[in-house]
Specification:
This protein is an all-alpha fold. It is built from two helices and no strands. The termini are close together.
Amino acid sequence: MNSHDFDYYTRRERDERLRAERATSVAARQAHLEMAECYAAMLQNLVVLRTAA
C-alpha cells in the first residue's frame, strides 16, 4: 500500500458520505452510501494487505 492509495480511498469515502448527506432523493442517497461503503472496504483491504506483508 502506498500513501497515495490510502489518501485517495479515504478522500473518496468521505466525499461519497458528504454527497449522501446532501442528496435530495432516497435513491441518490443510497447510491452514495453504497459507494462510500465500497471505498471503506477497499481501505480495509489495503490495511489488511499491509499488515500481512
